[in-house]
Amino acid sequence: MIDCGEGTQLQLRRSKLKFARLNHVFISHIHGDHCFGLIGMISTFSMLGRTADLHVYAPEALEPVLRLELATFCRGLEFQVVFHAHPGGHALIYEDRSVAVYTIPLSHRVPSTGFLFCEKPVLPHIRRDMVDYLGIPFYAIQSIKEGAGWTTADGRVVPHERLVFPAEAPRRYAYCSDTTYLPRLADYVKGVDLLFHEATFGEDNRARAAETFHSTAKQAAMLARDAGVKRLLIGHYSARYTDERVLLDEAREMFPETQLAEEGMVLPI
Question: Does the annotation count 33 as an active-site position?
Answer without folding.
Answer: yes
